[in-house]
Design goal:
carbohydrate metabolism, NAD(P)-bd_dom_sf, alpha/beta, NADP, glucose-6-phosphate dehydrogenase activity, oxidoreductase, 9-stranded mixed β-sheet, 6-stranded parallel β-sheet, 485 residues
């Protein structure tokens, strides 16, 4: 099985913040892999734009170093690297002033698709949008890519959307969430809506509960000052986990069209109930015995009430999901790095095998990282004599196993999403009203925490989180799935 590469039309991609960490680690290596795959034509150009004082030759060296360091798992030739960096230019630019803008205008062409990647702080979005218009760098076909955070509450998200709307139509704005570019996330839609096997069972009548877990082994590290102003709720739940929840729970759209898909996701967000205080657990990782700092030490604030872990039970008030709880869990310095969605189906209404056969459930597991893939747990007879003993075994579809050597050719999230920007396909990007609705749900929860001032509970680093999170499930007669190393 070989993935089919469809070239995109000629483009100019300008990366504001081109010397930043995101460009170095993700954007530039992703573009290089698309170049190696033959998806970029000879006319396409990539232009870095930043405050740093470089010329194009120095920036090309920077790009080559970034690819050498972060293009892990993908082999390439020196000829490919040379061919790619030949397409690179650089402009030293002042986002708040006039320097560099006329030169940028000379380097880009309205005869090609023009995309501008805002890999900068949100405070600069308005200034960049304004200057793109002022210097003739935008037209009806121009696209802008906006990185998160999309505000820190509903009011700031609305203000940010309003600033962008002064200069661009909603159809030109691509709010990027790399989770939506993962192969398994898109396969989730294929599994749900392309197979008669699942969709009739995808409701409260047959699904006992759903678990969504995003666990990280790293702490906040050098991001302490930023993270302490956000926390797991703002940094992960309101965007990444919310998007996964929407794809799991949404109704089938009338067609696979960007607005049709996003309309259905928006309905899910608006149907989400605000969870009670008893249904939310917040935690902060503790220091380790060998001297690794605690969360409070990492953020240099012993009085911080910001969470590095959160677990919650949420409910969706609609006909499909009424009565089916969805459990969300994410945190830092946990046992292993993993992201997965587990759809746990109900037990059979009557077991003909008797109580000695145990409890058995079908579980569809969607793994986002590591080892992207899916498996469906089914109940079979344990081999051997001596009675009807039942065991659960997985029907496994790990991409690396199923695709073999071709698994390396599957584009990563940024590769796919950037190419979708060039194509003008917004299906995997968030719409403005979707972002605002997610904040409208999250704001009352955050405000309640800030009002009561209760500190998150400590938990051991490299564990599965606070004991209170286990009790959140245990009191419902359920258990979290194991975070596997």
């Amino acid at each position: 099985m070989v993935s089919r590469v469809i070239p995109v039309e000629s483009f100019d991609l300008v990366i504001f913040g081109g010397t930043g960490d995101l460009a170095r680690r993700k954007i530039l290596p992703a573009l290089f892999r698309r170049f190696c795959a033959g998806q970029m034509d000879q006319q396409s150009r990539i232009i870095g734009a930043a405050r740093s004082e470089h010329d194009s030759a120095e920036f090309r060296d920077f790009v080559a170093q970034a690819i050498g360091e972060f293009n892990t798992g993908h082999s390439y030739t020196q000829e490919e690297l040379s061919g790619f960096v030949e397409r690179i230019d650089y402009v030293q630019i002042d986002a708040l002033g006039t320097d560099g803008w006329e030169e940028l205008a000379r380097l880009t062409s309205s005869e090609r698709t023009r995309a501008f990647y805002f890999s900068v702080a949100p405070a600069l979005f308005g200034a960049l949008a304004e200057r793109l218009h002022k210097y003739g760098l935008s037209d009806d076909a121009t696209r802008i890519v906006v990185e998160k955070p999309f505000g820190r509450d509903e009011a700031s998200a609305r203000a940010l959307n309003a600033v962008l709307a002064e200069h661009f139509e909603e159809s030109q704005i691509y709010r990027i969430d790399h989770y939506l570019g993962k192969e398994t996330v898109q396969n989730l839609m294929a599994v749900r809506f392309g197979n008669m096997l699942f969709e009739p069972l995808w409701n409260a009548q047959y699904v006992d509960h759903i678990q969504i877990t995003v666990a990280e082994t790293v702490g906040v590290g050098g991001r302490g000052e930023y993270y302490d102003k956000s926390g797991a709720m703002r940094d992960m739940v309101q965007n990444h986990l919310m998007q996964l929840l929407c794809l799991i729970a949404m109704e089938p759209p009338a067609k696979f069209d960007h607005d049709a898909v996003r309309d259905e996701k928006l309905k899910v967000i608006r149907a989400l109930d605000i969870p009670s205080v008893e249904d939310i657990v917040r935690g902060q990782y503790a220091a380790t015995e060998d001297g690794e700092p605690s969360y409070l030490q990492d953020v240099n604030d012993p009085a911080s009430t910001t969470e590095s872990f959160i677990a919650m039970k949420v409910r969706i008030s609609n006909w499909r999901w009424a009565g089916t709880p969805i459990y969300l869990r994410t945190g830092k310095k946990l046992k292993a790095r993993t992201s997965e969605i587990a759809v746990v189906f109900k037990e059979t209404p009557h077991s003909i095998f008797g109580p000695e056969s145990g409890r058995h459930r079908n579980i569809l597991t969607i793994r986002l990282q590591p080892n992207e893939g899916m498996d469906l747990g089914v109940t079979i007879k344990e081999p051997g004599p001596g009675g009807m003993r039942l065991v659960d075994v997985p029907l496994d579809m790990t991409f690396a196993d199923a695709l073999g050597p071709d698994a390396d050719d599957v584009p990563d999230a940024y590769e796919r999403l950037i190419m979708d920007v060039i194509r003008g396909n917004q299906t995997l990007f968030m719409r403005g009203d979707e972002v605002e609705a997610a904040w409208a749900w999250a704001d009352p929860i955050i405000e309640a925490w800030e009002k009561n001032g209760v500190k998150p509970v400590p938990y051991d680093a490299y564990s599965t989180g606070p004991e209170d999170a286990l009790m959140l499930m245990h009191r419902d007669g359920r258990r979290w799935r194991e975070i596997k190393v």
